[in-house]
Amino acid sequence: MTHHSSSALLSTAQSLAASGVPVLPLRRGKVPFGNCQACAGNACGGRPNMKTPGPCRCPGVCHAWAAASTDPAVIVSPAWAAVWRRAVCVGYHPGGAGLTVVDLDDADAVAWARTALPATRTLATTRGEHWIYRGAMASRNAVRPGVDIKSAMAYARYLGPGTGAMADLPDAVRALTAKAPSPVRPAPATAIGGGGGACPHRTPTYLERGIAMAEQQITAARAGVHATVYRTFLAVLSRHGRCGCLTDIHITRLFTAAQAKGETLRHCADAWINARTTLGM
Q1: Distance between CA 7 and CA 53 in Å, rounded?
Q2: pTM exceeds cut of 0.85
Q3: Which of 73, 146, 156, 270 has the greatest CB tally within 10 Å of its CB?
C-alpha cells in the first residue's frame, strides 16, 4: 500500500466524517493504535463490552473501533494530530455509518461472492475485494473460507469510493453469520440431585471475569504476541467454548484486544480456528 502524507489522510478523514462515516487513523499493519496508558487494559472502565462509548472520555484514539468519530473537533484535536502523523491509512466503523463490508480475502472468495451475493459497490484490496452494502448487522470473522463480515463493532480500511451502485443488505449476507443452535449438553453422570444439566459457565460474573482476564493477558504481552493470542484463545475456548456461553460480543472483545497489540484480523481468525481445531471443536 502507498503511504500517504498525514495531511492527505486527515483530508480524507474529514471528508468521510462530513458524510456521516465515523473515522479513525490506522497504523502500520492497518490496525488501530493501542489504548493510551490511562486506558490500557480498560483500566478507565469505559466502553464496557465495547458496545457503547461508556463513561470514558479519553481524548486520544483509544478503544480501537470505538474511537471512530464524525466530530470534526475530535478529528483535528491535538491528541489525534500526533497520531495522524504516524498513521498509514484511514479506517472507519461501517456499522456506525449504517454499512456492512463483506471482506473477500482472496480470488476464491471473490468468485464465490459473484455467484452467491447480489451485486453492490466494490473496492479492490491487496488480495481480494470489499463488497459494501447499505445496512448494518453483527460482525463476524471467517463466516466461510476467506470471508469476514465487518459492520457493527468492527473497523475497515478506507480504500476509496469504489465502483457500482450500493445495494441494500441482503438476507444472503445476514445468513452468513447465523449459528446453528448449540447442542444441549447432558448432565454429568455423577451429578447430584438430578440437576437439569445447566451450563456451569453461564454465571455472568464468572464469564465476564474470564473474558476480562483474557483481554488483560493479551494486552500485557510484551513479546511473542502471536503465541500469547493463540494460548489465550485456547484457554478461553477450553473453558467456555463447548457450552454455548460465548457470544459474538465476547469474541469481538478478544479480537479487538489482539488487534490493539498489532495482530491483523486474519491472524486473529486463524488463531481462533486453530484453537478450535486443537480442541476438536
Answers
A1: 27
A2: no
A3: 156
